[in-house]
């Protein structure tokens, strides 16, 4: 009897292990573009400050909103432009001049995306180039997706961490779905470099 129970337990454990393995294997990335040519411009660029807003197709019925004002960007995600504009991510501005790259990495479990990862460039006013313009420092931003609010979850300095992409993906997989916007503090993953310092200064 005891042998039979032990064997049954072993079968259950193996099944659970297989399910966990399948779940882990189902994690993956796909990519979309936020290049202006792949997006729709909302209204006309402001003649006063050149501010623009564009909406770009994403994954699973989601769209990416990119608003640029005074050489600073915000990126948000939602089912509609209005929904994306009301998310916490649409209200987070980095103090220095900044911009996001045109590639969005979507982390998904199966076909359901739960986070995006983007490379950002943050201007460093203490490091001018030969023309006197600030050089930029790169970092990766992990942003959680619905259900629930859309907000920044983690920052990974791309220069201080040679394996920044892997760190960002692990942060997305580990933290995004359980992250509480407005309560949990954005996590700095890996070595804290100049880009993260610039992004978190107030």
Report the order of strands and helices. HEEEEEHEEEEEHEH
Give the distance, in angstroms, between the N- and C-terminal Cα atoms: 67 Å
Provide the structure class: alpha+beta
| Rg calc | 20 Å
- Percentage of β-strand residues: 35-45%
Mean pLDDT: 88
Q: Please give the share of residues in helix.
A: 10-25%
Note the main sheet.
7 strands, mixed
The number of helical segments is 4
Low-confidence stretches: 9-23
Count of strand segments: 11
How many separate domains?
Answer: 1
Q: Report the principal-axis shape.
A: globular
Structural description of this entry:
The chain is an alpha+beta fold and 202 residues long. The protein has one domain. 24% of the residues lie in helices and 38% in strands. The protein contains 4 helices and 11 strands. The strands form 2 sheets. Strands 1, 6, 7, 8, 9, 10 and 11 form a 7-stranded mixed sheet that branches. A 4-stranded antiparallel sheet has the order 2-3-4-5. It is globular. The N and C termini lie far apart (67 Å).
Question: What are the key terms here?
Answer:
single chain, about 200 residues, alpha+beta, 4-stranded antiparallel sheet, about 25% helix, about 40% strand, globular
Topology:
Layout: H1 2-25, E1 27-33, E2 40-41, E3 52-57, E4 63-69, E5 72-78, H2 81-85, E6 98-100, E7 103-109, E8 112-128, E9 134-144, E10 152-157, H3 164-176, E11 187-189, H4 194-200
